Amino acid sequence: MILKDVTAKNFGQFQDKTITFDPGLNVIYGENESGKTTLHTFIRGMLFGIRKLRGRAAKTDVYSRYEPWENEHYYAGSMRMESGGKTFRLSRSFQKTKPKSELICETDGETLSVEHGDLDMLLGGMSETVYDNTVSIGQLKSQTDDGLVVELRNYMANYQGSGDGDLNIQEALDTLKKRKKEQETLKRQGEQERESRKRELSTHIDYIQDELEDAKRSLSQKQNEILRVEAQQRREEERRQAELAKMQEQERLEQQKKEDQEQQRLEAERQQAAAESQRKIAEQKVAQQRQNAENMHNSRRMAVTVAIAVLAFIGCMFAPDMMWKTVIIVAAAVVILALFIISNRKWKKSPKSVPEPEEETEPERAEVETDILEAAQKELEEQQRLEALQREKEEQQRQRMLEKEKLRWSMERYQEDIQEKTIQLENVQEDYQVYCEAEIQASPEEEDLQAIQMATQHIADIAVAMQQAIGEELKTRMSEILCELTEGRYEKIQIDENFNMGVHSSEHYIPLEHLSRGTIEQVYFALRMAVSQILCEDEPMPVLLDDVFAMYDEKRLMQALRWLAKQKQQVLIFTCHKREKELLDKMQLNYSYHSLR
């Protein structure tokens, strides 16, 4: 991989700061506080992101130290790099609330996914830990201390086995040892708990069995009560049906009696109506005879009247003068009037043609109404008595049904209780059986102890295997690099089975602890470069060195620069001194120079 350019859009002290790099050796010069370490951190953040820590650590973490000086809500940058003959552009927003990343292949326009591992593929699967311990050396990170030997020992073992410095053999063994003590304690506690639990379960089983027997007895009692209530209900129903049949028979007899009385009354009324009808027919005949006689009399009177009128008319025709005519007319009128008067007197003296029916007397009507009211009152009272009796029976039936439902509900509750306690008893018995079987079988703690013992032995075997597997390749590469850095003074690096390191000169073997600080840093540098070559052989990663050569004298620095200039990897040297540039010019080595101002 080759970094083409980086743009810190808003990162620390940088705003829209773009720096272009060339393949090979690049020297980035800047005085103190000019932003060298900021640029180094920015490149690392672009490759792996920057996470915001929590709690007190958040105050001094990388995220907080390099927050933008201006417009802190805009925290972003971009990078262009070349890998596998293609150019890629990586953009990131570091804002903790909305982190975002975008990876685009500029060569073919394809959009890739950082989240789905496309960037990891470009980095060859290199993790942050590998990056920080090989190709990226931060300011003062090469400084030696008392823990250098332990770091190198774990470092070599870890990388060959896992490719990641997160694995620590000694820590793993310490963890297993601690785990073993915990499991032994847990085993003792487990045995005590199991014994105590067995006693509890045995007591619980006895208690549940007693409750189950009580529930079964109560259920049997409720079943007997339900049978008793049902038998009582059947007897009550039979008695009610008998009473109902008796009442229906009485009602039928009373109804039959009423019908017979009604039939007799109707027969008497019919006979009386027939007699009355005959009487009325006789009266009508008499009245008709009288009417006929009256009609004959009226006919005669009309004939006489007409005859008198005709005679009067004839007399008037033959009368000699008007006076006689008047006398004849008056005489005829007087005769006719006299006839009408006599006829009316006879009509008034005669009886009516149709006799009026006789009206009922007041005492008879009152007696009839009293009989009707008494009958209606008796019928109403009987109806009310029957309704009251029916309501009483319905209430009794409802009470019995309610009692039966209560008993049934109680029985169902006991059945559910029995079922629940049966299941509970089975579960407790199963638990008790498990604890009994656990006394025969190996406990989980014993299995864990066996597993811990096996893991401890396996890790020890792996540690030995990793020491052997690291092989001659790493030692050879380290030796070649160190030999060149020291101009052949130290030709070979030795690593024993206990990860003790030392160097061979032409005459002596010197343990690492006895070397000078500058030489120890050269050994450490050789180790980093050798591991990076092994892990990044297919796609060499750029080497970033941030004021790494502060402890190097001029001779050591020249040898380091000469070695770096020959590598295929891109190298970025961050420095606050001008001697790197001067020595490169002096040795006439190709490099690109960048100044941070």
Notes on the structure:
- This protein has 597 residues and is of the alpha/beta class.
- Among the domains are: 1-126 and 537-597, P-loop containing nucleotide triphosphate hydrolases (Rossmann fold, 3-Layer(aba) Sandwich), CATH 3.40.50.300; 175-355 and 365-411, no CATH class.
- It is 64% helix and 12% strand.
- It contains 13 helices and 14 strands.
- The strands form 3 sheets. A 6-stranded antiparallel sheet has the order 2-1-4-5-6-7. A 5-stranded parallel sheet has the order 8-12-13-3-14.
- The longest helix has 150 residues, at 169-318.
- Residues 143-149, 159-166 and 351-360 have low confidence and may be disordered.
Give a quick precis of the structure.
The protein has 597 residues and is an alpha/beta fold. The protein is built from 13 helices and 14 strands.
Element layout with pairings:
Elements: E1 2-11, E2 14-20, E3 25-29, H1 36-48, H2 62-65, E4 76-83, E5 86-93, E6 100-105, E7 111-112, H3 118-122, H4 128-133, E8 136-137, H5 148-162, H6 169-318, H7 322-349, H8 362-440, H9 444-469, H10 471-485, E9 492-495, E10 501-504, E11 509-511, H11 517-535, E12 543-546, H12 554-565, E13 571-575, H13 579-587, E14 592-595
Helix pairs in contact: 5-9, 6-7, 6-8, 6-9, 10-11, 12-13
